[in-house]
Amino acid sequence: MDIRETSLTKLVRESDRYQALRSQYLSVVEEQLAEEIKDFTLRDIDIERILSESKKTGHIAELLEKKFISNDMASNYRKH
User: Fold this and answer.
1) Are 28 and 39 within 8 A, CB to CB?
2) What secondary structure does DSSP assign to 19-78, as a single string?
3) Residue 62 near residue 70 (C-beta atoms within 8 A)
4) For the chain, what is the largest distance between any 2 Cα atoms, rounded to a whole number of angstroms?
5) Tens digits of pLDDT across the chain (80 residues)
6) For the chain, which residues make up each domain, given as ranges?
7) In whole angstroms, how far apart are CA 53 and each of 14, 21, 23, 24, 61?
8) What is the pTM of this model?
């Protein structure tokens, strides 16, 4: 991501509208994940990584190889 895109994404995620919609659409998913995986908090970056893996197989493996994520986190991502 370039700097502009990163800044825009950050501003969008900090907006009240985004927070309201996120709660509306993801609260059930977050609750289900919390039941399945103890001490797991669903962050926006987690959602992006899971979606990236569904679009491009191997994305999680790349993150793991670069040590951006732990083995446990990679395992949690792959479950969903």
Assistant:
1) no
2) HHHHHHHHHHHHHHHHHHSTT----HHHHHHHHHHHHSTTHHHHHHHTTSS-HHHHHHHH
3) no
4) 37
5) 689 998 998 999 999 999 999 889 888 887 887 777 777 777 888 888 988 998 999 999 999 999 999 998 898 888 76
6) 3-79
7) 25, 23, 23, 24, 9
8) 0.67
